């Protein structure tokens, strides 16, 4: 009795797994046909990684729609073209530079001299220089 129940359970699980694998294979083929990449994390894994780096210029958020049925199986998602190429990070660099400039100016005015005479002030000046050197427009090449 238990043996036949167990065999029935295993057969049902295998059937559902085969149907699930077929659905996943169809989605993988559909996504890969667009130029994006949906691939297993490893040879025997049931989890996938997605990247749209190859089609970054044409890719939009609508390209993520085919992934909805297997969203629970995706462990790595790199939509590449669906965000704005790092302008958020560039603005953080600009704000950091402006805050360093304000801090250096405030310290200089309070001391009535250039604030580079001790280790703290020299390191503050060096970090300000590094922030200034790092300022550049966002890269358009992926």
Structure report:
The protein is mostly helical and 142 residues long. It folds into 2 domains: 2-82, no CATH class; 87-134. The protein has helices at residues 2-33, 87-111, 119-134; strands spanning 37-40, 48-51, 74-78. Strand 1 and strand 2 form a beta hairpin. The chain is elongated, with a radius of gyration of 27 Å.
Features:
142 residues; mainly alpha; three-stranded mixed sheet; 3 helices; 51% helix
List the helices and strands and how they pair.
Layout (H helix, E strand, L loop, with lengths): L1 H32 L3 E4 L7 E4 L22 E5 L8 H25 L7 H16 L8
The first-to-last residue Cα distance is 61 Å
Low-confidence stretches: 6-16
DSSP helix fraction: 40-55%
Strand element count: 3
Q: For the residues shown, what is the average pLDDT?
A: 75
SS-derived structural category: mainly alpha
Number of domains: 2
Main sheet attributes: strand count, strand direction, barrel closure: 3 strands, mixed
**Total DSSP helices:** 3
What shape does the CA trace take? elongated
Strand content: 5-15%
Computed Rg: 27 Å
Strand ordering within the main sheet: 1-2-3
Order of helices and strands: HEEEHH
Short description:
With 142 residues, this protein is mainly alpha-helical. It is built from three helices and three strands.
């Amino acid at each position: 009795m238990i043996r036949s129940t167990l065999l029935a359970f295993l057969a049902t699980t295998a059937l559902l797994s085969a149907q699930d694998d077929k659905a996943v294979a169809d989605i993988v083929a559909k996504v890969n046909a667009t130029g994006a990449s949906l691939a297993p994390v490893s040879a025997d894994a049931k989890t996938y990684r997605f990247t749209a780096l190859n089609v970054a210029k044409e890719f939009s958020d609508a390209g993520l729609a085919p992934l909805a049925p297997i969203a629970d199986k995706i462990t790595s998602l790199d939509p590449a073209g669906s965000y704005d190429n790092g302008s958020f990070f560039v603005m953080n660099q600009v704000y950091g530079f402006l805050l360093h400039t304000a801090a250096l100016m405030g310290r200089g005015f309070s001391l009535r001299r250039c604030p580079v005479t001790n280790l703290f002030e020299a390191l503050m000046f060096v970090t300000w220089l590094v922030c200034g050197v790092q300022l550049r427009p966002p890269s358009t090449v992926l």
